[in-house]
Design brief:
Layout: E1 5-10, H1 12-16, H2 20-29, E2 33-40, H3 44-50, H4 60-67, E3 72-78, H5 82-90, H6 103-107, E4 116-118, H7 122-132, H8 137-141
Antiparallel strand pairs: 1-3, 1-4, 2-3
Bound molecules: adenosine-5'-triphosphate and magnesium ion.
Adenosine-5'-triphosphate binds next to strand 4.
Length: about 140
């Protein structure tokens, strides 16, 4: 059964361009409820740990650098079938391939600085939510 929660980050490039407001507006207008949210700057060890699964990829160091270049917004979002619905709203990883009207099509600069992160499974949503929110267990347990 699909879960009701997902995890997102608004990445440094989008925060710097003052896209927090427009992105949160799209999130709300598409029926997501924000259950937890904070603005913070990732340290290099934080970003390395968060993107550990990508550590063998050629873009890993550059991604870590980009994700630590300024503040991010971390949030847990609630909606039916949240993971899939949010991946649809954000669009393809590469904004040049993202569908019209998606967050990445509208607000991303490049495949790396692609405006937002969205969890890719219920399992990862829990892991990622717990990475940022010490109290997130209560959301995921319902
Ligand atoms: P996210 O996990 O951030 O929601 P995603 O699931 O669409 O994005 P992943 O394959 O998990 O994409 O990649 C994680 C992040 O690594 C991407 O969001 C992007 O910032 C960066 N990335 C992915 N592929 C590339 C690439 N070819 N070149 C540069 N950066 C990349
Ligand atoms: Mg991913």
């Amino acid at each position: 059964m699909s879960g009701k929660l997902t995890f997102t980050m608004i990445k440094p490039g989008a925060v710097e361009k003052e896209y927090i407001g427009p992105i949160l507006k799209m999130i709300n207008e598409n029926g997501f409820h924000i259950v937890a949210m904070k603005l913070l700057q990732l340290t290099i060890p934080d970003a390395k740990a968060f993107y550990e699964v990508h550590k063998e990829r050629p873009f890993y160091n550059s991604l870590v650098e980009s994700m630590t270049s300024g503040p991010i917004v971390a949030a847990i979002l609630e909606k039916e079938n949240a993971v899939e619905a949010y991946r649809k709203l954000i669009g393809a990883t590469d904004p040049s391939k993202a569908e019209e009207g998606t967050i990445r099509k509208l607000y991303a600069d490049s495949i790396e600085a692609n405006a937002v992160h969205g969890s890719d499974s219920d399992e990862n949503a829990i892991i990622e939510g717990n990475f940022f929110f010490s109290t997130s267990d209560k959301f995921f347990k319902g």
